[in-house]
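Can you please make up a protein's amino acid sequence together with its fold in token form to help me picture the idea?
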Amino acid sequence: MKKQLLPILALLSIPTVHANEVNLKALQACTFIENDFNRLLCYDNTMAGKSLTKPETTKTLTPPASSVTATADVAVASKQIVKVKNEDFGLEHKELVKENDNEITAVVTNVKEAPYGELIISLNNGQQWRQIGSDSLRIDQDDTVIIERGMFNSFLLKKAGQNRSIRVKRTN
């Protein structure tokens, strides 16, 4: 029985003897990556013996057998990418607004009433604006109006010289 068991144990131990060594320094460098997906990708590539790549450019940054400083550079670079993305969070949909683009002044050429009582206001610059909501503001033809930016990409229309305003959206 012992003679039969010995060759089987010898065969089972061969894969562990000839297995590729895991680069522990590269694995430690992967721990510095804050983004979950990129960190997992780093672990997978290191365990598979592939080179560490930056996901955005697919440019090889450092092989897994290289020194700690090169893999630490990869970790620092990925931290900087995540930091830049976090600083721009929520601003992707906004364009840069110039100082004088916060409001426009125009003269009303036509005022119509929509089926539910909202105002449809045509201006002398060719723009058309539609009232949102049920606030009331009396606007007549040839009135000078000011449309200014509100919060959350909204717009407020008011008569020149008055403080009362209504929320509007541009229709053309």
The chain has a mean pLDDT of 75. Residues 2-87 form one domain. The chain has two domains: 2-87, 99-170.
